[in-house]
Design brief:
Radius of gyration: 23 Å
Largest sheet: none
Helix content: 55-70%
Oligomer: single chain
Region (Disordered): 21-67, 92-118
Signal peptide: 1-20
Shape: flat
Keywords: Signal
Strand content: under 5%
Distance between the termini: 37 Å
Number of helices: 5
Structural class: mainly alpha
């Protein structure tokens, strides 16, 4: 695999990770993940009326929350990708002599230039 293909693959993975992380940390993403991880499948069937649950003594009381393993794994992967992206960005900024984003914000707040200082 050529260097350009590897770079494109890393960039695509980084973009996918950024999108997944932003969605997972958004209000709608948090609600969705919370609903997925806190509602078990039989309980959902009883609430929606699907399945043959009502005649077997099933109550509509919530069952203890179970961890949704798929949602948890997706969230962990997204967090890992985001952390790796942040680490790589820091390495690139150090190599290029660029300031960190928080330094740029501080300079803008103080009214000084946001560019690199040599």
């Amino acid at each position: 695999m050529s260097a350009i293909a590897r770079l494109a693959l890393v960039a695509a993975g980084a973009a996918a990770g950024a999108v997944a992380t932003r969605w997972a940390t958004s209000d709608s993403g948090r609600r969705t993940l919370s609903e997925l991880s806190s509602t078990s499948l039989p309980h959902r069937a009883a609430l929606t009326g699907s399945g043959n649950v009502a005649g077997h003594g099933a109550s509509l009381e919530p069952r203890p929350a179970r961890e949704n393993k798929v949602a948890s794994k997706l969230l962990r992967v997204a967090q890992d990708v985001r952390a790796a992206m942040d680490q790589r960005e820091g390495e690139l900024r150090a190599q290029l002599g660029l300031p960190a984003p928080d330094q740029i914000k501080a300079r803008r707040a103080n009214g000084t230039s946001a560019g690199p200082h040599h």
